[in-house]
Amino acid sequence: MTGSNHQLLAQENDVFATCARIKYFDVVLDHGKGAVLTDVEGNHYLDLLASASATNTGHAHPTVVKAIQDQAAKLTQYTPAYFANSTTAKLAKRLAAIAPMSGPVEVAWGNSGSDANDAIIKFARAYTGRQYIVSFTGAYHGSTYGSLTLSGVSLNMTRKLGPLLPGVVKVPFPSPWEQEADESDEHFVNRYFKAFKEPFETYLPADEVAVIVIEAIQGDGGIAMMPPAFMQKIYDFAKEHGILFAVDEVNQGMGRTGKWWSIQNFPGIEPDMISTAKSLASGLPLSAVIGRKAIMESLGAPANVYTTAGNPVTSAAALATIDVIEKEHLLARSQKLGAKAKAYFEAAKEKYPFIGGVRMYGLDGGIDIVNPVTGAPDEEATTKLIYRVFELGAIIISLRGNILRFQPPLVITEEQLDQVFKIFDQAFAELAAGKL
Ligand code: PLP
Fold first, then answer.
1. How far is 295 from 313, CA to CA, in rounded Å?
2. Which of 119, 41, 42 lies closest to 310, judged by CA?
3. Which of 15, 135, 169, 286 counts the highest number of beta carbons within 10 A?
4. How many Å separate Cα 21 from the centre of its chain?
């Protein structure tokens, strides 16, 4: 790979959040099967991105494909604004059964993770009668006006777009690399909880806040888990002040972390609402907000309606996706293979000082590439690695410029995973030897 291509990738990363322009590799995909993608020239790639965690069941899973075909031949579309359909009704029941909250829940449909997060804002405001929303720096919640206002991952997301949605207050997220080398976990959590409370003590009346929206594990923010003790503190704070607690599960849900929902990695935390999309229907455009019944009943009929939301074909794909996750034990599989991947990258970290950190929660990982001397993020080395891994037959991208995003389809086989490790062995060794 030539230097000029590295340069090109770096430039494209700079405009990451303007999005439509980003393209990592000069590849036109033709088809996919399981964890393998094939381009129009017949080249095969192991997919470590899963369409940004949207194909947890892998590409063209036969059960999902058949469900789509059967439903398309039966009823392809009818807007839920006027008629229910049996497939989407069945899906609502299945989602209620796996919801991470107790008590009766209801589901609201959409077409994307972005619109689901907008819906969370609507339901929270309508139910509480309060106007303020709290979200976190480093978060990515989507591209519609509401969801991009909630986000805090890149200036390019909001440049030229203001004024944004009023009433959204951002608080700092305790990302792992913000912890000082000699700082105890307790001090770190207390420091960030103090920063969290600051707006409430100065200008933000807690009893006027409708909802706190979080990613329990920030995806685009670097596969960074919120420290459980910090989560408990902000959850208790929310309960104390009648503030709703909502979790964006668009990236991290549907089995990615080895649980149905990432929030289930935090015992005792019961969200009032969650949003899901991406892998919900194995990548087909379907989103849902699952929330406590009383909250979901707070909006009148036309307030959150999209003609193609809750579409029967995407709903059939979602039912089949849930079936596949259950029948193929993909939650356990994510945990088991995730542990294997964690062990691999942690061993690599011991060997190569340019690996500054490894986080892995199921098949859901972030690997920090840093300058071995200063420990500073090394975007150039990350870019070189990404291209070398691509040449060797696997597709991976970066987050924040220097974090390898490891999110393969959960159906990846052990043999394929071993092949992935061999590819990284070679790429890491070449980087260490100054050959890239
Ligand atoms: N929320 C999270 C955590 C995401 O990662 C994304 C997409 O990357 C979204 C919301 C937006 O979803 P969509 O692109 O389907 O609108």
1. 27
2. 119
3. 286
4. 21
Ligand 1 within 6 A of CB of 249: no
Tokens of 320: 């089949």
Ligand 1 site, residue 256, Cβ cutoff 6 A: no
φ, ψ dihedrals at 133, nearest 5°: -130, 140
Q: What number of residues does the chain have?
A: 436
Give the separation between CA 282 and CA 269, rounded to whole angstroms: 27
- Angle at the Cα of 389 (from 385 to 390), degrees rounded to 5? 115
CB distance 324 to ligand 1 below 6 Å: no
CB 242 within 8 A of CB 207: yes
Average pLDDT over residues 395-413: 97
Q: What is the pLDDT of residues 259-282, one digit of tens each?
A: 999 999 999 999 999 999 999 999
The C-alpha atoms of residue 156 and residue 109 are separated, in whole angstroms, by: 29
Which residues, 6+ apart, have CB-to-CB distance to 198 below 8 Å? 171
Exposure string of 213-248, with b = 16+ CB inside 10 Å and e = fewer, is bbbbbbbbbbbbbbbbebbbbbbebbeeeebbbbbb
283 in contact with ligand 1, CB cutoff 6 A: no
Instruction: Give strand ranges (E) for 258-327.
Output: 273-276, 287-292
At 4, phi and psi to the nearest 5? -65, -30
pLDDT in tens, 299-312: 988 899 999 999 99
Residue whose CB lies within 8 A of the most ligand 1 atoms, among 140, 252, 262, 275, for a mutation test:
140
- Taking the C-alpha atoms of residue 91 and residue 110, their distance in angstroms, rounded to an integer, is 13
Coil, helix or strand at residue 40: coil
Q: Does a cis peptide bond (omega within 30 degrees of 0) precede residue 163? A: yes
Going along 40-187, which residue ranges are E strands? 44-47, 105-110, 132-136, 168-171
Secondary structure of residue 299 in the 3-state scheme: coil
d(C-alpha 296, C-alpha 287), whole Å: 15
